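Suppose a colleague, Dr. K., hands you the sequence of a protein chain of 374 amino acids and asks what its three-dimensional shape might be. Before reaching for any lab equipment, you can write down a predicted structure in token form. Begin with the sequence itself:
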Amino acid sequence: MTVQKNRLLPESANARHAGAQLIRGRGTTARPDARFLAHGREAFDDGWHGSGTEDDAPPPRTQLFIDNARRVISYNTSPDVPFDRSINPYRGCEHGCVYCFARPSHAYLDLSPGLDFETKLFWKPDAAALLRKELTAPRYRCAPIALGMNTDAWQPVERHTLLTRQLLEVMVETRHPVSLITKSALIERDLDLLAMLARDDLVEVMISVTTLDDDLARRLEPRAARPGRRLETIRRLQQAGVPVGVLFAPLIPALNDHEMEAVVEAAHAAGARSAGYVLLRLPHELTGLFEDWLATHAPDRAARVMSRIAELRGGKANDPRFGHRMRGEGVIALLYTQRMRRLQAKLGMGRMRRGLNTTLFRPPQPDGPQLALF
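The predicted structure, expressed as tokens, is then:
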């Protein structure tokens, strides 16, 4: 993989560079160094800020790079997720959600989990061809594929690349079950394919709704669809016969946790038939990025939010242990679980996982004039 090298602003992991200005449409201005680099940098104020120098440069534009992957299906054995295989068409995400647990993965590219994650994106232009090849393998056994679990498969660049739509076309061709999660209204573009899959119980969709507060959403996830638009997406999926649920994620203690009932009830009214939640996760560099966001956007709540997170994470900012990372531990974590269960019972919203159909799968037909023997 070839990565274009760009000038990186000097930036510490825990604070924005001195005098930095918020960037419209971006979740962070920080560029903490990737943790695998042999060097580190510190922010400092040399007195030149705002004097017509590089600090007055135009906002960074989104750049798209090719990811020359050899395969597209990734396998996992995590007991915390209800799938053992997934496809992520993109690395990095233009939505700019400051809380995104996938941000630290950009460190594997020697890029910053901060601003680089939302401005330097990687895509797999041959993903559909690779998927067809993997599904053709004699040893392949059909099981639901989770699409876009790390970064949103319908983020803004998808309008031009059509990468996710091409993958869904392969799913339709092969009658392969797929589970989806997104916070983008762009998924409505592919309602024709999703409806075809839904007729044979081959698809389920979860729409992520973090808050109903437009102002908070704009600051937390600046390029994602606004909350009301996501509710409309739920409504349109339901009307098209596509099984759809709502994921209240992430649940951020002392920031949006009070909205759990309002979000789930609004989604149910729009047509969601299942609901779940995921507690905020802050792996690696994400802790500093989120603390910086709190200091900028919610300074009056910053200490309380981090204190409550530590209470849920055994005194730390993050707990990566299986069985704990999605829900936390302690009395508060138990209360969150009880609140969701009561909501599900009150509204008749069970878990989405009822088992997608795997019996209709048929491997892709090989390209060319040669016919299959059986």
